[in-house]
Amino acid sequence: MPYPEPLIIPMREDLTKFGVKEARTAADVDTVINASGTVLMITNSVCGCAAGKARPAVGMALQNAVKPDTAATVFAGADVEAVARLRAQHLQGVPPSSPSMALFRDGKVVWALHRFEIESRQAPEIAALLTDAFNRFCAKTSA
One of 15, 20, 29, 49 is an active-site residue; which one? Predict the structure, then answer.
């Protein structure tokens, strides 16, 4: 049974206030991931490491000069269909984890950060990992 929406609204807003789009259905996930360019997809969670580490780190990292074309989120335990689609279709071979983050380029996963990597770090350290990934995979190249 999904989490009650009133309970998680503030947790959703912790990301949407940074301009992160919500992908609440399987179709939303497919649309976001299959768009051209780069996408940061965050699997949000009710856990403490999401609240104190992952979500603040996303906000910090999105201040970087180089960032993904799109940042989107699904909520584990709430956006059940969307999370299932993300994991089954777009993160094949990547163990399920929440919270977690994955960076896609042209629909293919190029980088991922799992819960165990989030739990052991503070928000600024996670933000540094994200900005390193942004600089590596999101930088525009001239043709």
Answer: 49
